[in-house]
């Protein structure tokens, strides 16, 4: 297993290092390069939004996974999307609520669940976060065909989601 830092949350996650199993030195170098470069650019890119909205990178990640064009996710769904515990999501929601970026409400479908609704201010913050990270990404300067090739490689990997 190899320990990596999540792009937005900064948390360390473990997963199998395929380069070690494959014995491929080039793959290993590529793996390290991708991890280091994406982590560096994400942290730098997020800095203006984190300062402006006075939130942490982890809270920004939660805001990122709340799609304003879809139904508000439950607390449990948000925990799954962010790979955090429900307690962490509750803590982040409290931070985001204090800044007027989200509101927790009772689910209209299941009265026992709470959902996280993004506010207009939260939508503005989310748009800024997405734009900052997307525009500063090393992938942003690639043509559609190159991006499609990368996506195809990742989709073809048995351990990557489609």
TrEMBL record:
Residues 23-156 form the HTH marR-type domain. SUPFAM superfamilies: Winged helix' DNA-binding domain (SSF46785). InterPro entries: HTH_MarR-typ, MarR/SlyA-like, WH-like_DNA-bd_sf, WH_DNA-bd_sf. PROSITE patterns: HTH_MARR_2. GO terms for biological process: response to stress. One of its GO terms (molecular function) is DNA-binding transcription factor activity. Pfam families: MarR (PF01047). This is MarR family transcriptional regulator. It comes from Brevibacterium aurantiacum.
